[in-house]
Amino acid sequence: MKPKENIRLWLEYYKLSLNDNKFKTYIDQSKDYYADWGDVRDIKFDTWWKDHKKLFDEVSIREVDQIDNDKSSVYLKVPLGLPITDLTKRFVEIITEKQTKIRKTETKTKGVSVAKYSMTIGTEFRAERNNHALLIYRDVFLKNGSPPINTAFLLKVKTFYETRRATKFNKMPVSFANLDPKDENEGIVRNCRRYIKDAQRLMKAAAKGDFPGRD
Q: What is this structure's pTM?
């Protein structure tokens, strides 16, 4: 998934949290933080994104061949011979330091355009898995009255994926490949329960304004 999809998932998990009383305290505390998002309860992402994408840090990393004076970006020389783990660690250190400094000066320096929102720095975001968690939780679990997670529920998930109109990201999780209607499917049930827990964790993170939260 492209980075823009991460923002879409953030929005969708936030919308879910708005309708769950378990997160009311966090929602109230983050109300000012989310003020610029507007009323998102019933809005489609693409419609919302057109007017709000400017609120976010640039959502793509790209190779550049010309340096400009964009003070909201930092340009790095990357030694390609180093292990990716070393590069990733150093990258996070530099970006974290730069973001901290520039956000402190944002209100003091005129003409510096810095996006207000960014996802939690240094946290791994598995977009494909988190998209599955969203679909299974929102479109199957909630819409069926939060039923027990068993083979009957797994079959509802399977039917949901097979009958979706959406052509993007409509392949069901690989763990469902061995689903047997006559079996208890213990492994798939455990994995499906993890999807539900992941969705609830991400809802909490969105409600707090710290998405996807600290690992």
A: 0.74
pLDDT of residue 154: 97
Q: Which long-range contacts (CB under 8 A, 24 or more apart) does 55-58 make?
A: 55/115, 55/116, 55/117, 56/7, 56/115, 56/116, 56/117, 56/118, 57/115, 57/117, 57/118, 58/115
Contact present, 208 and 18 (Cβ < 8 Å): no
8 A C-beta contact, residue 160 and residue 98: no
Residue identified by tokens 């011979």 is: 81
Between vectors from CA 185 to CA 180 and to CA 191, what angle results, nearest 5°? 125
Distance, CA of 209 to chain centre = 12
